[in-house]
Specification:
Layout lengths: L2 H16 L21 H17 L6 H38 L1
Length: 101
Amino acid sequence: MSKSSEKETVGKEAEEVKAPKKEKSAKPQKKQDKNKKPNFFVRMGRKLKETFSELKRVTWPSFGKAVKATGVVIVIVLIFTVIVTGFNYGLSELLKLLTTI
């Protein structure tokens, strides 16, 4: 045997060791149709399950913090209500002046 034929034989043996043949399993695997969507109730069930699991991980504020944050929101809403109402009143008076001339 020549050296090149020995290298080829060793190379083939190394390939066989590196990539063993796949054995067929006893149970054939079912192929899922990628175009088929789960029905509405299955999707909603999964979504509800995900939602409840996410809610378990939420850190809820204490009652005092929630009341304080609510108060801040109400004050800001009142301030903007006064500003928008004043702006509206001013523009309506300006419109009256322009239309009475």
